[in-house]
Amino acid sequence: METFKTLTISKTKMLQHCYFEPSAKVLLNKLAAEGKSVILVMGHQGNWEWAGNTFSSEINSQLHVIYHPLANIYLDGLMYKMRTRFKTKLIAMRDTFKEMVANRKEVNVTAFIADQTPQPDNAYWMNFLNQDTPVFLGTERIARKLNYPIVYAFVKKVKRGYYEVNAEMLMENPSQTSDGEITELHTKRLEQDIIAQPETWLWSHRRWKHKRPTSATANN
To answer: Which has the closest alpha carbon to 109: 138, 89, 83, 135?
Structure first.
């Protein structure tokens, strides 16, 4: 798989195969120069593993990626090594807010891959790809508490083995938003990119395995 080539590929080769669209790099380095920590939100689309390593090689902020540790110790170690090879740091999902608060003196970017499936009772429910879909509220809740700018990222497949990382400002002042606003924004933005490149999204992760509980009918 292309993903596991990260263990042996050189930085130069990495940047040939996965690179930033110029304005995306300008945006992220501008935020870093202004001393602003950022929440980066994206989906499982394109080669998100390579994108993390490209980010750590090209952007002047420390990248933290939220991840769910694997039960298999060998595979977890392999994934950890692959993801941190170019100085990316990992945060276990359960420790996200605590670690982000602890890192507040550091100019950093924390990446939320926000299209996983939450427990239905704690989710925000909305229409996504014409399906009633639960969405994690963690990105929104943490962004509103810390008031970090939110940048949306999309890893576009250019051709086989080559990817371009795009990024755009999604919300500059999250603390001023209403309930559900941020969640709607980043989920609908992801939906646009899936429609544009459906073959690059991770369709196998059982996005619609839950049904909306009666208690959640007040959401959209």
So the answer is: 89
Tokens of 129: 């790809």
Q: Which helix or strand (DSSP H or E) is residue 183 part of?
A: helix 181-196
- Domains, the chain, in order of start with CATH, read 16-203 (3.40.1130.10)
Using CA atoms of 105, 111, 116, 119 in order, give the dihedral in degrees to the nearest 10: 10
Name the residue type at position 90: L
Number of C-alpha atoms within 13 angstroms, CB side, residue 79? 16
Q: CA torsion angle for 156, 142, 125, 71 (degrees, to 10)? A: 70
**Tokens, residue 100:** 């982000």
How many Å separate Cα 180 from the centre of its chain? Answer: 18
Residue 78 has a pLDDT of 77
- Residues 164-205 have pLDDT tens digits of 999 999 999 999 999 999 999 999 999 999 999 999 999 988
Q: What are the tens digits of pLDDT across the range 199-219?
A: 999 998 889 999 999 876 456
Both tokens of 167, joined, read: 């990024």
Residue in the block written with tokens 């999902």: 93
Other CB atoms closer than 10 Å to residue 204's CB: what's the count?
A: 7
